[in-house]
Design goal:
Layout lengths: L2 H25 L3 E4 L3 H14 L4 E5 L4 E4 L2 E7 L3 E15 L5 E15 L2 E7 L5 H17 L9
Antiparallel strand pairs: 1-6, 2-3, 3-5, 4-5, 5-6, 6-7
Length: 155
């Protein structure tokens, strides 16, 4: 086999490995399908995140995703120097039929060291999925709270 052919196979194999890693990671992302349209789920998500103290750093409502600002897990900040663990969330929403939306919450945990404006981040495996499932529970509760309370039939 020629050198170009071998190089092509190496690139193809590396690409397939990356796709496999992404697919397996995507399978581990906690998600939940809710009985509400995307617009209501977006509003409930925004409300739930604010209630839990998360700030939204970036969002694209047309595509259906948002990313929160990082929060400290175990981070020490000394003005010009900071070191420790932080995490942030990526939440995706997708319509899956009439009045149903699937929400997935992916948490990125990382060790961060900052000296002045230079930041070094190293990914760290999340110990569990309690934060993600807690966010999904809060979104679901926000949806339930937004629904009108059923009244009894008039007598």
């Amino acid at each position: 086999m020629s050198r170009t052919g071998r190089l092509g196979l190496v690139v193809l194999a590396a690409g397939l490995g990356l796709v496999g890693a992404r697919l397996s990671r995507a399978a581990d992302v906690p998600s939940r399908t809710l009985a509400a349209p995307v617009d209501r789920v977006w509003t409930a998500t925004d409300s739930a995140l604010k209630r839990l103290g998360w700030e939204i750093e970036q969002s694209d409502r047309a595509v259906g995703w948002l990313v929160t600002a990082p929060r400290d897990l175990d981070f020490k900040d000394y003005a010009v120097y900071g070191k420790g663990l932080r995490h942030k969330l990526r939440i995706a929403m997708k319509a899956v039929g009439e009045g149903r939306t699937t929400v997935s919450v992916e948490r990125e945990v990382y060790a961060e060291e900052r000296i002045l404006w230079m930041i070094e981040r190293t990914p760290v495996a999340a110990p569990d999925r309690t934060v993600e499932t807690g966010i999904l529970d809060a979104i679901e509760q926000a949806l339930l709270g937004a629904r009108p309370v059923p009244t009894s039939a008039p007598v």
